[in-house]
Structure formats: C-alpha cells, structure tokens
From TrEMBL:
Name of this chain's protein: Tetraspanin
Gene3D superfamilies assigned: Tetraspanin
Bilayer-crossing regions: 23-48, 60-83, 95-120, 223-249
Pfam families, alphabetized: Tetraspanin
Natural source organism: Ictalurus punctatus (Channel catfish)
Family under the similarity heading: Belongs to the tetraspanin (TM4SF) family.
GO-annotated biological processes: artery development; regulation of sprouting angiogenesis; venous blood vessel development
Amino acid sequence: MGQGDASARSTAMEGDCLSCIKYLMFIFNFFIFLGGAFLLGVGIWVLVDPTGFREIVAANPLLFIGVYVILAMGSMLFLLGFLGCCGAIRENKCLLLFFFLLILIIFLAELAAAILAFIFREHLTRDYFTKELKAHYQGSNNTEVFTATWNTIMATFECCGVNSADDFDQQSLFRRLNPGRAVPEVCCLRNEQLMNVDECLRGNMPFRIKGCYSAVVDYFEAYIYMAGALAIVVLTIELFAMVFAMCLFRGIQ
C-alpha cells in the first residue's frame, strides 16, 4: 500500500508539473504571437507609410531587404505562436516537435542576422554617407533615386547634408552640376520673410545648419534602444519556449 501511495503521489506530482509546463508554454507562445503581430505591423507600416519613409527604404537595397525580412520573421513568429498555443493546450506531440524545430531555425537566423549587422556596421558610418553624398547627389529637382531619397531625408528631418551644408563643397558632384550654387534648394529655410532663396543658394544664410546624420540619429535614438530591448526579450522568450516545448514533448504519454 505504501508503494502504491508513493507511486500515486509521484504520478500526481508529475501531472501537476506537466500541467504547469503546459500553461507556461501557452503564456510564452502567446507573447511570441504578440511579438510576431508587432513585427508584422511595423513592416506593413513602413511599406504603406505616406510620409516618404517608404521611398527612403525602397532606394536603399539593404533597408528594402530588411523590411521584407521583418515581414517574414513577423509572419513566422505569428504562426509559430499560434501553433505553440494549440500544441500546448491539445498536448499534441507532432505540433510540439514541429514548433520546436521551426523556432530553433528562427532563433539561429536571428543570431546570424545580428552578427551580420555587426560585421557590416561600417556601411552605416558618418564617413560612408558623406562619401556617397558627395559622389552621387545631383540637386533638389533631380528625380534620380539616390538624389530623390536624400531630398526626402533633408526635407523630412529639416537638415542639410550628412554633417552640414559644408558637405556640398567644390569636390562634390552637386557643385560641378550646379555652378554658382553652394547648397541645394531643399536646404533653404522656408520663411520667406526672413530670407531670399537666391541668397541661400549662393551660400548666404539662412539655411539649415544641422546635418542629417545627427538629425536621424536623434530622432530614432529612443526607438533604437526600444528595438534592442525588444529583441533581447524576444530571444529570451524563444529560449524558454523551446525548453518548455521539449519538456512537454517528453512528458506527454
């Protein structure tokens, strides 16, 4: 009788532990589901945003690819969260194993993307953008993709050049294509009572002083930290979800 009671108690404890793991996995997968929905929302917002950010993304191949990577990852996390919740509640070993393998692939892909971003970070430096601006920017009214993208950036963030208006020096393509102009028209302030456009174009004040690199970094600084914190949270949730999925898989009879 003593052994039977001990066995019954052990079985009950295992059942309670399995039930606890099941509901914990459901909670973690629910957060993965929400994370996927958030990424999907961000990707869709960038693609349909009417304020010009879509054109900036489309003009840069790396950013353009990045948006679709975000959409793909969001869709995958959205689906996995849903499958994980179903697998946990229904205690389906096939769904749990499928969930574990897919989320492991996503986890490794996210780590690889972070490593690649760190390796190629030099392509996002101030010097790199300055070099590109001097070599390719043509003028305010030009429709070439690179030039139009920079016009959108300077108009949106109310800035001029990468560092300042000094980026449009004698060695820049802009000065060679636009003799007599020191800055593009998009750099000029729009208060007609305080300025003359012709004077601004010749380099006389007032024109926008702040460079776009600082303006963009200042604007997105809070979002960068938020995105980094969110990435850490998502990776942690994915790790716990994989552990709980394997524990639940092994515990289901």
